[in-house]
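User: Can you write out an input/output pair for a complex, sequences first and structure second?

Assistant: Here is one pair. Inputs:
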Amino acid sequence: MNRNFSDAAENDNALIKKMIEGDTSAFEPLVKRYWNQVFFVCMKYLKNSEQASDAAQETFISAFTAIEGFDNSRSFKPWLLKIAVNKSIRQLNKDKASLNFSIEKSIGMQHNSEPAKVVEERQFFDDCISRLELDDQILFILRHGLDLAYDEIAVILEKPVGSVKGELFRARKKLKDLLEKADGKEVETNV
Amino acid sequence: MSEEKCQNPWLIQEYLDAPEDKVLEAKFNEHIKICSECRTEFLKYKNMFQSLKTSMTPPKLQPTPAQMQKIREAVSTKVSPKNASGKPELNPGILNSLMAFLLQPAAVTALIILAALSAILVNINKDNHRHSNNDLTVMVERNLNFSENRVEIVFADPEIKIKADNLEQNLNETKSFDTGKDYELPPNSTIIVFSGSSKVKISESAKFRISSNGFDLFKGKAEFNLAGKHDNFRLNTPLGEVTPIGTEFTAKLSNNNLFIGLIKGKIAIKTVNGSVMQLDQKGQTCRIDQNGNFQEPEDPAPKSPELILNPNQTPSDQNNSHNQSGNSLENNY
């Protein structure tokens, strides 16, 4: 996907310019705009709402305290998400075992007004995704959830664009195979 | 029409990745004319792309005022004015006024009196300190007080409103809940409220009231994780009261039934008709009907989040621990 900067990205860069010029209130719209995306990425890595919330806060704090070093000709979102990924990986390495009172499912609760069958299908799909490698799941979030272009994902994950594309294609193939296999098993059990 | 293995297996994904690309679309349309494998696979991939979009899109979530404040403080600290040595500058006007005051004879007398009083107070404090260790322990171990609560995490649309005694207020701007007020959570929103290290996750359009030593749930769902000393805590519902002896449990009011699930520790449940049950095994659930009678659990909803989420737990572990009935201590006593 080859995209130019969107209006949002242009607004981002205007806000960042204001911040660099000393307007400290300019950070708030950026936090409001990207909080859910940063939190979602952190949550996928850490699977613990408190840790994800802390990592999201630290992501914004790190980004804003280093904002003068940001190249304003580039897009802010991939730069911010790269910080979020790095923070989460560092936290994950620090404490892999902390999964108490995880509210990962709260994310799914946004859809609790849907019919039971739809919820069940979504649950089945999410279960299959959760069986994939974490790196594959992160690729899905960045590409399908956050609608990032391959070159933006490459910046975040510090990989060549070709590798990102290849890994994503293979991850989708794995997921499709897993869905077919799991679906077949479910049918067998029901029969 | 060829039945051989596809020579361009990534073309479907390339096309679905960029459906607006006319060149790719033409190439794909040509390809599926001759590739039966891709004709079969295309619909599967198309459905999967749609599901991925739905499943991987972040929830509508905004930072809480507390989170925003923390970021604000960090940002403003970074840009606060500093002198060359990095220390905050002292206003020269204040310095001059202070010197002028100290040079007056009345000020010198006042300072001497103050110094003498301070010495007496220090001695009194030393004496009190010998007896105050117990007070300190009491402070550390003091009972959970839910009137001191703070909203830490909110999953909701940015502008969604919560009802507080039937008056609407912005959920994302809500920092804490007042005791004695009835709150009603809007649909499709989830919040996590902290009191000390204890926390409650509230969802499913819950209607609730917080008091200093308890939580009243009128409808919806609440999940409790209680830390520290909390033997004064009670969960009150129209159908029964829950006394937590342990730490984590869920409560859900649905269709005039109360569903309780134990995650960790022990809980005792006393219903409106006086029936009592204790849950003491992880994963135990129970259902209380509208008359206050214990019934076999039939709703899978009160499954503990830990049981659902712990990746180290096998499905068989989950089956073993779920839907065990509680121990009825005494009925209709």
